[in-house]
Please model this.
Amino acid sequence: MATEFATTEELKRGIAGILTVQAGGVAIADEKRLRETLIDSLVRTAVFATEEETRAAARRLIRRSAAAIGIHAASIQGLYEAMGRGEVKGFTVPAINVRALTYDTAQAAFRAALAAGSGALIFEIARSEIDYTRQRPDEYACVVIAAAVKTGYKAPIFLQGDHFQINAKKYAQDAAAETRAVKDLIWEAIDAGFYNIDIDTSTLVDLNEPTVKAQQRLNYSLAAEMTTMIRDLEPAGVAISVGGEIGEVGGKNSTVEELDAFMAGYRETLDKNGVNLKGISKISVQTGTTHGGVPLADGTIAQVKLDFATLEKLSQAAREKYGMAGAVQHGASTLPEAAFDRFPATGTAEVHLATGFQNIVYDSVHFPADLRERMYAYLKKEAANERKEGETEKQFLYKTRKKGIGPFKQELWDLPAATRTALGKELEAQFGLLFGKLNVGGTLATVNRFVKPVDVPFPLPASLE
Model:
């Protein structure tokens, strides 16, 4: 198992002969040793080093060494604009939320992508996940990029802020503070290399209002306000891909009428904020899913009746009327495998996948039973107030076990190599299956045609000079 560097001086000694720090960047003296050994130590240092200065130095070395071999964080905007023009079609982009074992899971995804020739895939983390998995954007970005270095995946890396969401209750109590919290997170994420941001103000849709446009007013107004901010913050040469949302996942199914009302108000508001500001590239909708699925009393997941007809209509309208890539489906990872073939067939632009990968880790025969039980014991104590009346223990644990990941993050990273390898193989098989069903195999050439990554400067700390 690789060990982290304890201090910045130790870090500087550890990169000798492999990386050379230069003005504005890093030169690679030995790429083979970088991939085989050093990157493992750098990523552990970036996550677990005690000193913030040392963690920051390791993160910058990861970013700059990745850039030196052609691996850059990128915006998927160019590809989505091509989809909106009808020049590219026939596949649905998987957006992967990695909660646990991020370094190993991302490697599994990249291995599957390399095997399939896939370039159209996104790594994302939601506002809520950042907290309960204890992964800030800068850490998450560096771990994913380190996984690309480790596996030899040299292609644009799409990092996405998923559900950067306004909490309706907090907004009702203090609208300015809650809006500022989301804006601060957007700023932090962009600084970390997240050049794809999904704004979620759909929590503020008020179905009690008399007209559809009035129902969407707060949603489109804040979405336009945040889009304007993102355009102000995006690095030179980067057009950040921004997503909007018209229906909260788990609520009523979305309609084309709601899409039209949202877009009318959004464009009107955006036009008031600036001249020719680029708008959203996709729209998230509700078609019958729930995040994580609905656990039954025995712990199994209830079958979902997903409305593919509505999804197809919304995707078509998004493209034909507004030049977007299409609609985005959330809460899909626990759907039956047979459902995934239908996303490309209905023109769905993007599908979000999270809980299914978490389930593979928790439920694997390779996952240590004693660790699982300790995590469950923690949840029974610390999340007891989340248990609903009449809920079985299996239902409670299924719904809350995502919140055991952060407190046990280092123990998960410290699992024996054989255990992590076995879990990685299970995850890789699932990624391969999904990439096949979503038809993203062979998309690397298409991505390279429409996406031109920008080498955004990330200054190295003075302590490395």
DSSP finds 19 helices and eleven strands in the chain. The chain has a mean pLDDT of 93.
